[in-house]
């Protein structure tokens, strides 16, 4: 008797997954919790196109949340990984690829004199925080509401009822003691930053901020009197002996060739920077780097312990290096033009259907908010019409376009988002805009 083959359709896979994996997913947003429905289980992807277990094809606007910036299964990247795999999967010892990847990052990003490779963005921010605390001998870290820095205990803290006081744990399982060392401020609020430092500057080890917030939707760091918000933060920490950690896990190598720092980095520099996503080209890589004196605090030379069995893994560094090598000036021009075209298509469709929206950018990165007014803070972002987004999302999926399943995410284009691909998105937009309009 032949045993019955298990079904491989998405709904059945999701049911099986929920038996053995919490909520059926290995990262929460994938469960479609905020938009509802069953997430398609993806089986393969090429260029800008995804295929699911039910035989559907989608234009991908998630790009694995950023890494697939050259499109899926890019030939050069796959070939580099294949070649590396043939030489051995992991050594737990120095290997040439990690030197080349580090050299490429140092060459691109001015403030990074040295960097350590890790396996995720979370590890990168966690380690940068440890270095900052060791360097300053202080405990308190300042973050901004709506900025995401991975699932580091101290960085999952949330603001308590709108006041800039000690934070509350942002997740069950984070101790009150940990949350107490984190202060959460509204993004862009210079007065709040200044008064906090005036009061407690001597306790603060670092400010950590996304170089441009992109995990509550995209916010362009605001300028005041020609001084950008990041530069303001840099000058503030400097005046108080604290450090600035600029988190470029999402914006790095995407917002521009030099990440977001390439856009607003003039006359100032973060002390430490964190990377992830694009730097691994789809394999698990993160990195943190910055000033040589700070990075010199790391073990074995220095007192800050940090390590990783798979850090600098040869497959991961091969994928990351091949991806960065593919990201030349012409690739950024292609990305920029795909991003602008798509923004225009979306704006046109939503305007025609009478759907309130605002599109915000950080270099080639952008997101669509379903509200009229510009979004400057997390409170603004939360005030959008998420129900309209949900209707829009499902209609787009129906029309063969795979958007991030949340109203609070950036949309990700790749160099594979060529004209025919954008045409397919354009075809799906009018019906989705109409769905968004119909309450
Ligand atoms: C994705 C992200 C992280 C976390 O990276 P993981 O690889 O998911 O751990 C940290 N910071 C920012 C800005 C991110 O977008």
Describe this structure in words.
With 439 residues, the chain is α/β, with parallel strands linked by helices. It has 2 domains: 170 residues, Alpha-Beta Complex (Aspartate Aminotransferase, domain 1); 252 residues, 3-Layer(aba) Sandwich (Aspartate Aminotransferase, domain 2), CATH 3.40.640.10. Helix content is 37%, strand content 17%. A 7-stranded mixed β-sheet has the order 4-14-13-12-9-5-8, sandwiched between helices. The protein has a 4-stranded mixed β-sheet with strand order 1-2-3-17. Helix 2 packs antiparallel against helix 10, helix 11 runs parallel beside helix 14 and helix 13 crosses helix 14. The model has no long low-confidence stretch (mean pLDDT 95). Bound molecules: pyridoxal-5'-phosphate. Pyridoxal-5'-phosphate (PLP) binds next to helix 4. Pyridoxal-5'-phosphate binds next to helix 4.
Name the descriptors.
single chain; 439 residues; Aspartate Aminotransferase, domain 1; Aspartate Aminotransferase, domain 2; seven-stranded mixed sheet; four-stranded mixed sheet; 14 helices; 17 strands; globular; binds pyridoxal-5'-phosphate
């Amino acid at each position: 008797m032949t045993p019955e083959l298990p079904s491989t359709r998405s709904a059945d896979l999701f049911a099986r997954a929920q038996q053995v994996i919490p909520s059926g997913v290995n990262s929460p947003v994938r469960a479609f919790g905020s938009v509802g429905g069953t997430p398609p289980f993806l089986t393969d992807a090429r260029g800008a196109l995804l295929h699911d277990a039910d035989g559907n094809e989608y234009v991908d606007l998630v790009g694995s949340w950023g890494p697939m910036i050259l499109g899926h299964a890019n030939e050069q990247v796959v070939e580099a990984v294949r070649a590396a795999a043939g030489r051995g999967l992991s050594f737990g010892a120095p290997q040439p690829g990690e030197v080349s990847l580090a050299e490429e990052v140092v060459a691109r990003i001015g403030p990074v004199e040295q960097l350590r490779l890790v396996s995720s963005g979370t590890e990168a921010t966690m380690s940068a925080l440890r270095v900052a605390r060791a360097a300053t001998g202080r405990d308190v870290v300042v973050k901004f509401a709506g900025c995401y820095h991975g699932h580091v205990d101290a960085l999952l803290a949330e603001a308590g009822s709108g006041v800039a006081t000690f934070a509350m744990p942002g997740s069950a399982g984070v101790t009150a003691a940990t949350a107490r060392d984190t202060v959460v401020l509204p993004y862009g609020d210079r007065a709040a930053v200044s008064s906090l430092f005036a009061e407690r500057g001597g306790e603060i080890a670092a400010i950590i901020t996304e170089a441009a917030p992109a995990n509550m939707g995209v916010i362009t760091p605001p300028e005041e009197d020609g001084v950008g918000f990041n530069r303001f933060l840099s000058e503030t920490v400097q005046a108080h002996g604290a450090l600035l950690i600029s988190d470029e896990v999402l914006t790095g190598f995407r917002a521009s060739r030099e990440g977001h720092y390439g856009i607003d980095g003039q006359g100032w520099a973060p002390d430490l920077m964190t990377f992830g996503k694009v730097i691994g080209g789809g394999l698990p890589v993160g990195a943190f780097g910055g000033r040589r004196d700070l990075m010199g605090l790391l073990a074995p030379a220095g007192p800050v312990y940090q390590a990783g069995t798979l850090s600098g893994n040869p497959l991961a560094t091969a994928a990351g290096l091949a991806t960065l090598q593919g990201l030349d000036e012409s690739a950024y021009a292609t990305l920029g033009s795909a991003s602008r075209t798509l923004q225009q298509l979306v704006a046109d469709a939503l305007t025609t259907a009478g759907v309130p929206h605002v599109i915000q950018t950080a270099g080639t990165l952008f997101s669509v908010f379903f509200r009229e007014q510009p979004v400057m803070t997390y409170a603004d972002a939360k005030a959008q019409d998420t129900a309209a987004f949900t209707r829009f999302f499902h209609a787009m999926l129906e029309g063969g376009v795979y958007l991030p399943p949340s109203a609070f995410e950036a949309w990700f284009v790749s160099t594979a988002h060529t004209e025919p691909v954008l045409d397919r998105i354009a075809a799906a937009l009018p019906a989705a805009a109409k769905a968004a309009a119909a309450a």
